[in-house]
Amino acid sequence: MLRSITRSLMNAICLLAVTIPVTAMAQDAIVTREGDARSNRIATFLDQYIEGDFSGADDIFKPDTEFYWADMSKAMTLDGWRESVTLQHEAFRDFKMMNRVIVTTDYPEYGVWTYVWTNWQATSKATGEPLDLPLHLMYRWDGDRIADEFAYFDKGRFESVFKDTMARLNPADDPNPWNWVLGTWKVTGGPAPEAVVSWTKLDGAEDIVRGEWVDANGVRSMQMVDWDPSTGSITSTTFGSDGSTFRMVMTDFPSSTMMIGTFRARDAEGVVSGGPVELEKESDDRMVGRFTDAGGMTMERIFTTAAADDPLRKAIAPMNSGNDWRTRAVDEMHGRYMKGDIEAMKPIFSKECVHRWGDPNAEAGQAEWAEGLAMHHKVFKDISLENLYSMSGAYSDGNDWTASWFEWNGTDRKTGEKAAFLVHCAFRWDGDKIVEEKVFFDVDRFRKHVEAAGLN
After folding, report:
1. Cβ within 8 Å of residue 225, ≥6 positions away
2. Correct CATH for 2-169 of 3.40.640.10, 3.10.450.50, 3.30.2000.10, 3.20.20.70
3. Strand order in 61-69's β-sheet?
4. Beta partners for 105?
5. 443 FRET partner, CA 20 to 30 A, in 66, 242, 250, 356?
6. Domain 2-169 shares a fold with domain 325-452
């Protein structure tokens, strides 16, 4: 309905364009005024916008006002408008609205509208280059507040200059752009089960965010998000307790609350999918993730602030800082592994410990575990665990776990080839012994090195 009203108004707008300015005019009971109360309110509001003052937005806009900026297919919310104009002032300076004309028209059929014609001007903070865009604004009133805003301008040109400016102002050595996702979110939508994720920063690690997931099927997943300032990219790797993995690489950041990249997923049955992904924070309490597979099908996942009494939120474990005795014991065990001292690693494990490497359904006992680790050092030399981080937590189901993330590096003794694997380990405790170990990594690629060495 609103779109048809907007189209119907075009004829009246064309008439106004050739008769403004006027003090009052009437044609078929249509009344247009300049300098009236509503026009003056818009003028004051735009003056405040030029100065970067958005405090009057709540007074002039309704809470559910919809904003259409050069695109009738997608409306912004009031929170989205605030964020957009704030970003404009981060990117530009010396705002002006030149040759501005403001009038308000009362239509018997369509209600009250205020129109603005102007030249929007500003200067890029990064390049010093001016930007001059003809701009037409339409405001539909509902009582004494605005219900809809329409902006007509060269959006493509604006976005090109804006993105270039923001890229220059925010070089690749900035802190992790993922920081805006921090918090606990309810995740819904698409064929995947509902879930809750808690994203937190690791102590003392500015460029690393940790995510902990639990879904409605009881699957728990651990996620590590790493920002590489040297390349300006984010790498996110998630490991599920059912053997699933999910990896994203984000390389494009059109705004401070949007990122674009690619994903690769492997579900619990081993089915692999992948394609483009984008994540956008639309407001303080809502984000949208869009994942498009190779067949062009898009799954949309909605992130909203998780309620305090959400059962899934309660299942998220409060994690320790990494200074507890279990975390220290696991880190010491990792150090012994790098040295190849397998015997010294054994005391931390129960003799009945179940080891699962890559395949959640394939279990190994201590003898097989020790043989496998020894084989690592037969196939590779100079083994190191880079960017190692471990932490422990007590879960609501009564289990205590220690989780480790690291990049495994080694040199193939036969070929001299350097190999690197992203690895996640999870250790379940019973008292002071580990009774279950789960290791997530690219097992098939690792096996190829073993087979080439003739040790399989």
Report:
1. 176, 178, 199, 208, 209, 210, 211, 234, 235, 236
2. 3.10.450.50
3. 24-27, 30-33, 92-107, 111-124, 130-142, 145-152, 61-69
4. 32, 113
5. 250
6. yes
Q: Tell me how crowded residue 319 is: count the other CB atoms within 10 A of its CB.
A: 19
Closest to 9 (Cα-Cα) out of 120, 148, 119: 148
CATH number of 325-452: 3.10.450.50
What class, spelled out in words, does domain 177-315 have in CATH? mainly beta
Show Cβ contacts of residue 134 under 8 Å, excluding neighbours closer than 6 positions.
118, 119, 120, 153, 154
Residue 8, SS3 per DSSP: helix
Q: 150 burial class (0-12, 13-18, 19+ CB within 10 angstroms)?
A: buried
User: Per residue in 322-359, pLDDT tens?
Assistant: 667 888 899 999 999 999 999 999 999 999 999 988 76
In this structure, the dihedral spanned by the alpha carbons of residues 341, 347, 351 and 357, taken in order and rounded to 10 degrees, is -50
Task: Say if residues 426 and 393 touch (Cβ distance below 8 Å).
Answer: no
* β partners of residue 102: 116
> pTM for the complete prediction?
0.46
